[in-house]
Amino acid sequence: MPHPESCPAAVAEVQGFYGPFTFPELLLQKIWLRGDFDLTAARTTDGRALTILHAGRWNRLGGPDFRGARLRLGATEITGDVELHLYAEDWVAHRHAADPAYREVVLHVVLFPPTAGTVTRGADGREIPVLALLPLLHHDLEEYAADDAVERLANRPVARAIEELSPLPAAELTALLRDEAEKRWRWKTHFARLRIARLGWAGACHHTALEVLGYRFNRAAMLSVAARWPLAEWAAGRVEAETAFAAEAGRWSLQGVRPANHPRLRLRQYAEWARAVPDWPERLAAQAAAWPEVAREAGEGTRAVRRAGKFATWRRCWAAELTGGAVGGTRLDNLICDGWLPLLAAQRVRDGYGIWFHWPPGDLPPALVRALRDLGVCGGRAQPAAQGWAQGLQGWWLAREQAAGAPARTPSGRGA
To answer: What's the average model confidence in pLDDT over 313-326?
Structure first.
């Protein structure tokens, strides 16, 4: 990991799956605002338990990053400002101790754990508690960066992508999208592998399921619920949906959320699911060997592939036998494509890429699906919209935006 003196203070360069990527301080601020880390395990570097009662008001002007936070440090409740940096040494590098604007800072949040003996001190010499987020994160840094890029992309008009891709010959366009889809698949299985390594098979399945149910504005709160109560607690009926919902009060994003996606309803679904199929991660791994075989480069159209593989029959089977009928609709498609298939591939149970490519697109942005129709990639009975084509277009678009250095929009504070 680079030292702060070797890179700009507001950006860290980290080695990722496809090479180096940047992790900006702005993204760290979003993670703090959303509470997108294991809140139950938060401890300052001196060992005191930290409870975040209110993250504070995000300050996009001068001074500390968050104003008026309410925290419980050990048994003591404190109120004040919170300053965030990628590295603990940035406090000194930015001369905050000499700046009166930082006089009310009560917590210094850093991404990377500081070296032993590193202390943050205020102007009066008092020691300011430090919280390192890296050990508490739900995801690998690269996954946070990738999700943030997808979130920004969702707010951009798709017309420019159509303008750039439409002149390509059909064969060249489909080859390009297949290549980008393959990259997206490898990326998803890579992140699934990291999650399994960190949580084990059952824990990874449990976290992934709740995260998918919270897509897209309530993923962070759902992951906090997953960390607080493991699958065994849900399966035994010791967790009520209302209890879990109340535990994250103030963190749910409800504005613009359709009734079917309300987190209270999603938590009820998971409670029903876990009680009906308490061993669903084990069943998932055991049953996957019998799933349909679909070639990675199936020459037929998606409709023919789905018919030959009996996708509709398998979908009903999976909904009944693996979720107890608790999950359906496009959220089930997300669960299959963003959760089960990458996890199974990461666990080396089966590849699943062919199924993933031709599966329905689930809750992917409708603009992507419309763009694929306009480009002539999807449309008509033989070639309905599919996960692989949509992911391929999304992957191309992300790569193009990153290469162009497109400026980030002002964050809304809502979860990804």
So the answer is: 96
DSSP state letters, 195-245: HHHHHHHHHHHHHHHHHHHTTTTSHHHHHHHHHHS-HHHHHTT---HHHHH
What's at 406, amino acid-wise?
Answer: A
Per the CB < 8 A criterion, the answer to whether 81 and 54 are in contact is: no
The tokens for 367 are 């603009």
**Per-residue pLDDT for 409 more than 70?**
no
Query: Helix axis angle, 366-374 relative to 387-404, nearest 10°?
Result: 100
In 269-382, which ranges are E strands?
Answer: none
Q: β-strands 120-121, 127-128: how paired?
A: antiparallel
DSSP letter for 39, please. Answer: G
CA gap 293, 353 in Å, rounded = 10
Half-sphere exposure (Cβ direction) of 156: Cα atoms closer than 13 Å? 20
Q: How far apart are CA 222 and CA 303, in angstroms?
A: 34
pTM of the model: 0.86
The DSSP letter of residue 378 is S
pLDDT tens per residue, range 293-314: 887 765 678 999 999 999 999 9
How many whole angstroms separate alpha carbon 45 and alpha carbon 39?
Answer: 15
Identify the H or E element spanning 78. Answer: strand 76-85
Q: How many angstroms separate the CA atoms of 302 and 293, rounded?
A: 14
Non-local CB neighbours of 285 within 8 Å, separated by 6+ positions: 201, 344, 347, 349
Whole-number Å distance between alpha carbons of 353 and 337:
9
Query: In whole angstroms, what is the distance from residue 388 CA to residue 394 CA?
Result: 10
CA angle at residue 219 from 108 to 346, to 5 degrees? 100
Q: What is the pLDDT of residues 240-280, one digit of tens each?
A: 999 999 999 989 999 888 888 999 999 999 999 999 999 99
16: left (phi over 0), alpha (psi -120 to 50) or beta: beta
Q: What is the largest CA-CA distance in the chain?
A: 73
What is the per-residue pLDDT across 84-93, written as a single tens digit (0 to 9) for each? 999 999 999 9
Nearest-angstrom CA–CA distance, 329 and 319: 10
Q: Is 3 helix (H, G, I), strand (E, B) or coil?
A: coil
Q: Torsion angle, CA of 229/234/239/241, rounded to 10 degrees?
A: 100
**Which residues pair with residue 404 across a beta bridge?**
none
Beta bridge partner(s), residue 127:
121
